Every structure is written in C-alpha cells, then in structure tokens.
Amino acid sequence: LCGGTSSYEVDETVKKITSQMKAEVEKQANESFSTFEPIEAMTQVVDRYLLFSVVAGTNYFIKVDVGNEKAVFMRVYVLTWALHCRWDHFGDLSLTSIQTGKSVNDKLEYF
Fold this sequence. Notes:
The protein is α+β, with helices and mostly antiparallel strands. The chain is built from 1 helix and 5 strands, in the order βαββββ. The protein has a 5-stranded antiparallel β-sheet, covered by helices on one side.
C-alpha cells in the first residue's frame, strides 16, 4: 500500500540522507558534484511485501542543487519498520531512482 506524497521540510534528516547518497548519485549520474545541497523535499509512506515479510518505510523525494542552476532529483527509500527482518536494518537507505538534467526551478513531483 502506498500513500500520496507530502511536502517535507529540508531538515537534518533530509540533509543527512542527501549527504549519505552523494557518492551513489554521482556514480549513477557518471558525474562529480562540488555542490550537493538539498533545497526541496517530499515524502511518501509505503509498505512493501517481500516474501513472507512486511516492511514499512518512507520514500524521500529530494531536489538537490548541484550548482550552476542545475539540480538532480533523487528518490531514497528509508526502511523504518520490518516484521520478520533483522532489526539492525532499521534506517537502511536505498537510492531508488534519480533524475538528471533538471533545473533548480523544475517542480519536484513523484517519479
């Protein structure tokens, strides 16, 4: 089950997620960024069913300023709860998708 997206403040959580995902975003984009600052965010609460387990988490959609009026959009799944999973995975991050070729003026939407 998935919920709709909601605006989310660029707080310390978003900044931490952005920082932790920088290397993976650069790898997928095949580009290095000297600037990598979150400027907008949205969230979506999701449940996933994997085999006989239920896991709950949040998708973070983050617009990242990469300099020169350019932006990268990233979607990061953060595991927040797991049934029948090891508890040491709480807070695991997974870069689900990125969009490059964006401007800081482009609207952040579900992708």
